[in-house]
Design brief:
Structural class of chain B: alpha+beta
Oligomer: heterodimer
Distance between the termini of chain B: 37 Å
Radius of gyration of chain B: 17 Å
Strand order of the largest sheet of chain B: 8-1-9
Number of strands of chain B: 9
Number of helices of chain A: 14
Structural class of chain A: mainly alpha
Number of domains of chain B: 1
Shape of chain B: globular
Keywords (chain A): Cell membrane, Membrane, Transmembrane, Transmembrane helix
Helix content of chain B: 25-40%
Subcellular location (chain A): Cell membrane
Radius of gyration of chain A: 21 Å
CATH topology of the largest domain in chain A: Formate dehydrogenase/DMSO reductase fold
Helix content of chain A: over 70%
Number of domains of chain A: 2
Largest interface: A-B, 27 and 27 residues
Membrane topology (chain A): Multi-pass membrane protein
Protein name (chain A): Polysulfide reductase NrfD
Family (chain A): Belongs to the NrfD family.
Order of helices and strands of chain A: HHHHHHHHHHHHHH
Amino acid sequence: MDTQRTGQGILSGSSLALLILFAAGVLLWLVLGAATGLGETTAFGLYVAAFFALMAAGAGLLIFSALPDTLGFSALQPLSGKANLLALACLVGGGLFILADVGSPLTLWRMLTGPNVSSPFVWDLLFFAAAFVLGAAFLPVSLQKREAKGLSWVLSLICLALLVVEGSIVATVWSNPLFVAGFVVTGLLAGGALLLWLAPTDSPPELIRPLCTTLASLIAAWLFFSLLDPLTALFLGATEVGETARLILAGPYSPLFYVQILILGVLPLVQFARKKEAGLTYGQGVAAGLVLLGVFVDKYIVLVPRQMNPAIAFPSTPFTAGPAYAATVAEWSLTIALLALVGLLYTLAARTMIREVPAAAQLPFEQRRVA
Amino acid sequence: MRYGMVIDLDRCVGCNACTVACKAENGTPPGIFWQRMLLTERGRYPFARLEATPLPCMHCEEAACVKVCPTGASSKRKDGLVLIDADKCIGCRYCMVACPYGARSFNSGARPYYPGKGLTPYEKVRYQEHPAGKVEKCTLCSQRVDKKEEPACVATCIAKARFFGDLDDPNSEVSQLIARKGGYQLLPEKGTKPQVYYVGGGKRRWIRRELAKASSAAQVSLS
């Protein structure tokens, strides 16, 4: 992912590989019947989970890219432009997942042209659109490492609001307001993990150390929000909530829950909490990958019907003893294709935009002003 | 004017005449029930009994489905009926997630009542009223109400357990029944203010738990 260090040849190769993956995925999806989300019996499926995961990553990255201006974290300045570009690619990918879910541009157009302002879905779309527009407006600022305090604060707050609105949609389904906090945390986690992937391997400790500490703190917060509810519910005894908690912790759904705790919680936490003097390590890169996978799993199991909690009555889903939905090969192929497209968009944009930054603009803002 | 319904659970015998009348009036496809019947076994042998609770759409004053619908396809008429505009519905099913009563169904496509035989001429005509990929639900028979007729379920109820009228009129039969027999709504804690009231039935508190799986339970009991 390190575009500045990888060189022209490798970058072209990775772009080509992503292009082939994208084309193959779309082709397979078309051959297998071009499944869309809303046409299926299960309303909330893989596309919706992927949309929420990309929204989390995009919003989280934008908040991190604005950090040099909002909280004065100047060590992050060299990565701000890259983070902004990748965030925009994630938001484009998220938009395409929504299109895949609703099935036709006309349906999406109906949502945009006849919105019901009391609907959280509409607020989700509005904040998504606002985050994209503001992120695009922030791009020249982050690439040229200029200062724009007002814009960076507005961008950060809009991204935060996007995560809160998405968390509140899921909180309604689960009747659990903790999901709002959980969505904010997973958004920042996804953004931070991607940022670590974007960092050069010889990054200074002033960048890597606080980033790893932040990620470790966010993971601890996520573990707190994820474990608090089922563990306290256990004390409710033979009630419906208590029974649900038991099913999550020790029932047929518990393997998914513990896999999530392991890959998004324990394993990366151990890695990020270690004290390191040198730059970015291989283990930290792997831990960041686990966090990204964990965020995707997190969205999948809280959004897709009965992947973890059998008590949730999702629409059009028969009551079953185990998970009621398994994504089809067609859905997986389009999901992989669109994720490849996100990577492709980023690599192409980074190649054309980041390399054109004049050397003088690499200087810290204060020095440029003096010059 | 605020149309509403009262269902007397002491009179309801669970015969499902309302369910069938609803299907005949509205021509709903297999698996889709605008009027559902929740059948629940209570007590232990030899004192076990089956209790029936009819579940139409509650046409709530503060309808959660109307609030969450992203396109405004679900809306509330001035006379209190909550209706769905199929042209505006995109089939996202957020309304189904929001509705605490499980009153809505998703129509995934025209299915024949006689598998392998194709659609009958009747089905071909009636299914035009039920476009695929849309959410649908009880309309309190708005087509009949507009002609000053009662909903089909009320007109057909053998036990005379259902009553329809204006909740804003204190002299209407429904208002009188609610006042006289202590009418109550289902899941009042949800704040949706249903316009369907129940009387009798010992204020079934267990219904809260049963409603969570109402859609599947009711359909299993009917299939």
